From TrEMBL:
Species name: Skermanella stibiiresistens SB22
Top-level taxon of the source organism: Bacteria
GO molecular function, one term: DNA binding
Pfam families to which the protein is assigned, alphabetical: DDE_Tnp_IS240
UniProt name for this protein: Transposase
Length: 237
């Protein structure tokens, strides 16, 4: 392993490659902090799960922000959906928007499921994306229609349970992480975790369908190259 040259890793006992590997493992796969610790131990790297937690918080945000900034313009068909999360015994709603290819556009954790909450999501999407979609696809929750009339009146709105499977399926990785974490502890934790998790997983959302094995491997190599450039270090061998 080499001495880290990136200033972000200055002063850390472990090389940048190890830290980058820990952050990538934790956000890319449904692993607990202790599982990441064990996988690093299998490579001869002795580090505590608490150190891994600190790395994910400190470096994950910066990596995710750069990936979000680098991301290409997504599709003009947005799928929106919300799912219930029980946090500390209270019901919350995770609002999510994905494009037609399944890339996550944004998420927002809220305590309500009304038109005001839907408006907050739409305004956040417009601010982050910088443009309105051609089509918005949702289920039949009336809050979406009310919010769209005020925030995006010129956008075509399609409401149907079946055609919104793209957004509904996008909740599955969050459900897996929820089980791995033995439930989320706070709405702030969910928002913080997903704001890092989603850009990283967007980078490796390569879609094997309609791709040859060679094309897929090329796309994967390109994704790893972007990761190395953004993280400032290659993944540890």
């Amino acid at each position: 392993m080499t001495t880290p040259r990136d200033r972000r890793y200055a002063g850390y006992r472990f090389p940048a490659e190890v830290i980058a590997m820990a952050v990538w493992l934790y956000f890319r796969f449904p692993l607990s902090l202790r599982k990441v610790e064990e996988m690093l131990a299998a490579r001869g790297i002795t580090v505590s799960h608490e150190a891994v937690r600190q790395w994910t918080l400190k470096f994950g945000r910066g990596i995710a922000d750069q990936l979000r900034w680098r991301a290409p313009r997504r599709g003009d068909k947005w799928h929106l959906d919300e799912v219930v999360l029980t946090i500390a015994g209270k019901r919350h709603y995770l609002w999510r928007a994905v494009d037609r290819d399944g890339f996550v556009l944004d998420v927002l954790v809220q305590s309500r499921r009304d038109a005001k909450a839907a408006k907050r999501l739409l305004r956040k999407l417009l601010k982050k994306q910088g443009w309105a979609p051609r089509v918005m696809v949702t289920d039949k929750l009336k809050s979406y229609a009310a919010a769209k009339r005020d925030v995006m009146p010129g956008v075509e709105h399609r409401q149907h349970k079946v055609i919104n499977n793209r957004a509904e399926n996008s909740h599955q990785p969050t459900r897996r992480r929820e089980r791995r974490m033995k439930r989320f502890k706070s709405a702030r934790q969910v928002q913080r975790f997903l704001s890092i998790h989603d850009p990283i997983n967007n980078l490796f959302h390569l879609r094997r369908d309609h791709r040859t094995a060679s094309d897929y491997r090329t796309a994967r190599a390109q994704a790893f190259a972007v990761w190395v450039e953004v993280a400032g270090a290659p993944l540890a061998a």
